[in-house]
C-alpha cells in the first residue's frame, strides 16, 4: 500500500513539474530594437529572429534608460519611485548596501520556495559580491556564474571579456572569454536540472563596453568602434542561439518559456526600418527605454506574429508567478501585471495594460499605444513621430483627451522616492 502511495505521489509530482514550465529570461546589455533584425534593424540577428518566428514579438515594451534601475525593477516588480533606484548605482564600484533581501523579495526567492531550481549567469551589479558573499543565495539563486563587477581597489575585477574574472558558485577565476564561460555554465545547469522546473536569469555581459573582439572576429579584428559593437551583437546572438539549441536538443522546448529583451536603449546608434536610429542608453526619450521583447512560450499554438499589447518591466515578476501558478503573497506589493493573458491571445481589454511607465531620476514618462507624455511637458504622437521630433498637431481633435488622461495617471506617481541605502542620500536625485 505504501509503495502504491509513493508511486502515486511520484506521478503527481511529475505531472505538477510539467505543468510548471521552465523559465529562461535573457536580457542583453545596452542594445535596443535597432540592432535586432526581426524588428527591422539592418544588422542580422538570426537566432533572436528564430525565437520570434516561433513566438511573439512585442512592439512596445519599456524598461528604464539605464542599467541598475532596470535590474531592480524587474527583480522587485516595482517602479523606481517605489524601490528607490531612480538612477544608476554601481554598488561594487561605489559602495553601499545594495539590494537588501530584508526589504525586497525577488521573484527568484518565491520560485525557489515553490520547488524551482534557480540560477543566474551574467552581471548582477546591485550588490557587492565580494563583501556579501552569499547575497545571490539570499536573493533566491541556487547557483551562479557571474562577473562580480568592477570592485573598488581591485583592478583585476575590471575585465569581464578576454581573460575575464568570473565567479562560479563563489569561486573566482580568470577565464578565456567571460561570456563563453557563463553561457556554458547555463547550458550545463539546464542539463543537470532538466527533470524539475528551473528558472534561469541571464543578464548577459554583451553588448556592454568595452567593445572588444569576440571569438568570431578575433583573428580579423575590426578597426572601428561601430564595427566592434556590431561584432558584439553578432556574438551575443550566437550565444542566445547556443542556449536555445541546447534547450531544444534536450526536448525541453515545449516545457520552457524563453524571453529575450534588453536593459535599456543601444550604446551605439543603429538602423531601424532603413533609417538611422539614435543611441538610446541613458536618454530621456522613447528610444532610451523602448527595447526588443520576444517571447517563446510552450502553450503557444502558433508563433511568428507581433503584438501591440503594452508591457513594462514591472510586469515580469507577476508573469513569472502566474506561469508557475504561485499566488501573489498578501504582503507583497507589485506595480506590474501578468502578461500571460496577452500571450494566450486574450481580447479582453481589462486583462491588458492601457499605459506603461518609466523613470530616471526626477524625469518621469508615460505612454499608451499612440501618445507619450513626460514630466517636462512633452507630448508626442508616437505612431507618426517615433523619434519625438515634432509637437502634436494642434488641430488634432483626439490628442487633447489622451494627453489629459496620461497626465492624470502620471500625477499619481510620487515625485520623490526613498533612497535605496543611506550612503547615497546626497546623490539621490529622487529625494526632496
Structure description:
By secondary structure, this protein is of the alpha/beta class. The chain has one domain: Alkaline Phosphatase, subunit A (3-Layer(aba) Sandwich). It is built from 13 helices and 16 strands. The strands form three sheets. It has a ten-stranded mixed beta sheet with strand order 6-5-4-3-7-1-8-11-2-12, with helices on both faces. α7 (135-138) links the parallel β3 (117-123) and β4 (143-147). α8 packs parallel to α9 (225-249). The longest helix has 25 residues, at 225-249. It is globular, with a radius of gyration of 21 Å. The chain starts with a helix and ends in a 22-residue tail after the last helix. The model is unreliable at 1-18 (pLDDT under 50).
Whole-angstrom Rg: 21 Å
Shape estimate: globular
* Largest sheet, spatial ordering of strands: 6-5-4-3-7-1-8-11-2-12
CATH architecture: 3-Layer(aba) Sandwich
Q: End-to-end span in angstroms?
A: 67 Å
Oligomer: single chain
Largest sheet: 10 strands, mixed
Give me the number of helical elements: 13
CATH class membership: Alpha Beta
Mean pLDDT: 92
CATH superfamily, by name, is: Alkaline Phosphatase, subunit A
Which residue ranges are poorly predicted, with pLDDT under 50 across at least 5 consecutive positions? 1-18
